[in-house]
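ok trying again, last paste got cut off:
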Amino acid sequence: MSVTAGVTDRNGRAPDLTSLGAGATAGTYRLTFDLGSYFESKGIIDYLHPVADVTFIVKDEQNCHVPLLVTPFSYTTYRGT
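nice, full thing came through this time. structure:
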């Protein structure tokens, strides 16, 4: 089930994500990033991951910052502040 969808801005942020309906209530969430479209828009045709799914937990309606760092052949994420 999809709760909401959005597109990142020039800085790679999705500031409207919670206003689109996701909310920040406690629970488990998954963000799906369309890396293939991103790389191809940059003229990069040789990449490993067409999609990155990041599953994370929100507790007690906390503010959530989930950075995703990508290269054509890897990605990583962490809990931001």
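cool. The longest strand covers residues 27-34. The radius of gyration is 13 Å.
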